[in-house]
Write a structure and sequence with these properties.
Elements: E1 20-22, H1 38-49, E2 54-61, H2 81-93, E3 97-103, H3 111-114, E4 119-120, E5 130-131, H4 134-154, E6 158-163, H5 168-173, H6 188-191, H7 193-205, E7 211-217, H8 225-237, E8 243-247, H9 265-270, E9 278-282, H10 288-296, E10 301-304, H11 306-310, H12 314-320, H13 333-337, H14 343-352, H15 361-366
Parallel strand pairs: 1-2, 1-10, 2-3, 3-6, 4-5, 6-7, 7-8, 8-9, 9-10
Length: 379
């Protein structure tokens, strides 16, 4: 447990004061135009103040049509820089690394929200997404790189490229969704080309000490575990990123593909060579026992989602008591307000994650603490 509170150095940029990473979470609490709200600011600053060594934003969309949720923080326009600068400065004032996660929702960007059909590597009948032309793919690359420069200009220590959860980068990686026949489709090398170009573009355009991470899913969202392990290995040995952040839903579960069962999904990635790249993961790391177990399995840092919602100061609580266990769920809106969770975020939790929040204090008190009903709250 004590090792969780030791600093972590990276190949580039500032060190992380401990091994606790606030996982990026959708909160639906920023302004409709993508600018920072006071509620989003308070939510994130409370976690930085509460001891998280790396405080990461929700996914910031790099194009206006790449918005996946209402109330989402944006980075597709210079008008966002003022709020992001305020946020980055405040996070760093508490000693935490300030990281902006950037993404494009791809086929998961609702037409009714953005006023335009979603885009995808290939036409997708189920979502109504339209396949990107080659010039549009090139524009996506440019917009990601420009967004990274905005994050750097705003004062963030670095950015994370969100390649998980079936958003645009992950859609290109998928052999099911990506049916392109040009240089971005077909072989896995081609399907990973977009991500590799984003990494190269950020490296070439941002400063030598700018921290760059990548988030990937292990096997869900029409991905193949063998391919994702190959990609993870290449990225960690490539020397272009500081860390790999695996979103695994449940780090201790068995892989869904029978040929890969026999060890946990986490072990498939902790067993890979890393070079100088750090490895983090998130997925059902709820209490001290789970967090310590995952860290002992070989992680360099642990991504915390659900328990960070109900305890803004989880690292401090665990530092004071290694047997600390989070509050019984679900919790009331009044309790969450004390954790700097806004009413908009509470409504989102009630809609999609009812295992975390109840709609009143009485309902929370009477609800069953069914841990099996909980799902990952990462964005």
């Amino acid at each position: 447990m004590e090792d969780l509170f030791t600093p972590l150095t990276f190949a580039r940029g500032r060190e992380m004061p401990n091994r606790f990473l606030l996982s990026p979470m959708t909160t639906r609490q920023s302004n409709d135009d993508g600018t920072l709200s006071d509620e989003e600011f308070e939510w994130l600053i409370a976690r930085a103040r509460g001891g998280f060594g790396m405080t990461m934003t929700c996914a910031l969309h790099v194009q206006a049509i790449g918005r996946g949720f209402a109330g989402q923080l944006g980075i597709f326009d210079d008008k966002h820089v003022t709020g992001l600068s305020r946020l980055a400065e405040a996070i760093k004032s508490h000693g935490s690394l300030a990281i902006a996660q950037i993404y494009h929702a791809g086929m998961r960007a609702p037409k009714e929200l953005n006023g335009a059909s979603p885009v995808c590597p290939s036409d997708n009948e189920a979502t109504g997404a339209v396949g990107l032309t080659l010039s549009q793919v090139e524009q996506v690359v440019e917009d990601f790189v420009v967004a990274a420069r905005r994050a750097e200009r705003a004062g963030f220590d670095g950015i994370e490229l969100h390649g998980a959860h079936g958003y645009l980068i992950g859609e290109f990686l998928s052999p099911v969704i990506n049916r392109r026949t040009d240089r971005y489709g077909g072989s896995f090398e081609n399907r990973a080309r977009l991500l590799q170009e984003l990494i190269s573009g950020v490296r070439q355009s941002c400063g030598s000490q700018f921290n760059l991470g990548v988030r990937l899913s292990g096997e869900l969202f029409d991905l193949r575990l063998a391919e994702m392990k190959e990609l993870a290995q290449d990225l960690m040995l490539g020397g272009q990123i500081e860390y790999l952040d695996m979103s695994l839903l449940d780090v201790f579960k068995q892989p869904k593909e029978p040929e890969h069962q026999g060890k946990t999904i986490l072990e498939h990635f902790t067993s890979l060579e890393r070079g100088g790249t750090r490895l983090g993961a998130a997925g059902m790391l709820w209490d001290g026992e789970h967090i310590a177990k995952a860290f002992a399995a070989g992680l360099d840092m642990v991504g915390i989602g659900r328990s960070a919602i109900v305890h803004h100061d989880l690292p401090m609580q665990m530092r004071a008591d290694q047997n600390f266990h989070p509050v019984k769920l679900p919790v009331s809106p009044e309790y969450l307000a004390g954790q700097c969770v806004s009413p908009a975020f509470v409504d989102y939790l009630l809609e999609l994650f009812p295992g975390i929040a109840a709609n009143s204090a009485a309902a929370a008190e009477n609800a069953s603490d069914d841990m099996q009903s909980l799902v990952s709250s990462a964005s």
